[in-house]
Amino acid sequence: MISKEQTKHIAKLARIELNKKEIEKYQGELSKILDYIEKLKEVNVEGIQPMSHPVEIKNIMREDKKRQEKEGKMGEKLLEMVPDKKNRYLKTKGIL
Known about the structure:
The chain has helices at 4-13, 20-41, 69-81; strands at residues 85-86, 89-90. By secondary structure, it is mainly alpha-helical. The protein has a domain at 4-41: Histone, subunit A (Orthogonal Bundle).
C-alpha cells in the first residue's frame, strides 16, 4: 500500500487539493491500481506482437487516376461561358 505522503505527492503533481478523508480514499484506490499493474507484469507475453489497437484498421484510399479528356474539354467549355476571366482564372468583384 502506498503511503499518505506518496498520495499527497501524487495529488500535488496532479494539482489536486485533497482533504484527510480524500487522501485515505485515494490512497486505497491508488494502491489497488498499482497492485493490478503488478499482476499484469506476471502475464507471459512472449511471442505476442505489440499493437496499438485490438482491431486491425487500414486506411482505404482510392488510387489517383488521370482525368479523361472529356472532363478536361468540359472544363474548357465552361470557362468559355464565363463573362470575365484572366488566363484560366475567373474574375469576380471584390467583396471587401
